[in-house]
Here is the input.
Amino acid sequence: MIGNYKTKPYTALRFEEDEMISRSKSFFELMNQRRSVREFSSKEIPTEIIQSILLTANSAPSGANKQPWFFCVVSNPEIKKQIRIAAEEEEYKAYHGGMPEEWLEDLSYLGTDWKKEFLEIAPALIVVFRKPYDEENGLRKKNYYVQESVGLACGMLLAAIHNAGLVSLTHTPSPMNFLQEILKRPENEKAFLLIPIGYPADNVEVPDIQRKSLDQFTSWYR
Here is the structure.
C-alpha cells in the first residue's frame, strides 16, 4: 500500500448481452444526431440542467484524479458582448492573413467566417479552463496529463449537452487570453474551449457533412 491508498466496493452496471448490444446501438444513434450548431434561440436554460451537465463533465477521468479544469458559465449579456467583441477581433485577424490558405479552403464548405453573433444570442456560454497547477496554502501543486484530462471532460460535457436536448458549438478563437482577462480568472487557469449552448433557432440548418465509416477509422487486431 502506497501513501493513503484506499478503496471502496464498486458495483458495475450489468446487463444481458442482448441488452448491452441494444444500449450501445441506441447510444450511438443518439450521439450520431449531435451536430455543431451556430444558430441559437435566446430562450433561457433552466439552471438545474446546466448544473447536471457540468456535474457529468466533472465525472471524467483525470490524471491522479486532479480534475484540472474549471468551468465558467456566462449568461450576463454585457459579458457575452465583451467576449464576442474580443473573439471577433481574433477571428478577423485569423481569416485575414492569420490562417494558411489550405486551412481556409478546408473551412470553406462549412460556411464559417469571423463574425460570431452566436456568442451573444446563445443564452449561456461555457468557458472551459485548464489548470496546469493548483495553489494550496501558497504552494503550487502540479497537475498531470492536463490537456488529455480536460479534453475528456469536454467530450463528456458535449455528450451531456446533447443528451439534455440542447445544442452547442466548440469555439476556439486563437489566442484565447482575453477570456482569462474578461472573466478575471487566476493565473493558473488557461482558456481551453468556449462553448455556446442553448436551444436551436427555429428552422436551423447545419452543413451537410458525412462522418467516416467504421472501416475508415478503425483497425482490429485479433
Q: What stands out?
A: The CA atoms of residues 5 and 160 lie 31 Å apart. Residues 77-98 form the longest helix (22 residues). The chain has eight helices and six strands. The chain has a mean pLDDT of 94.
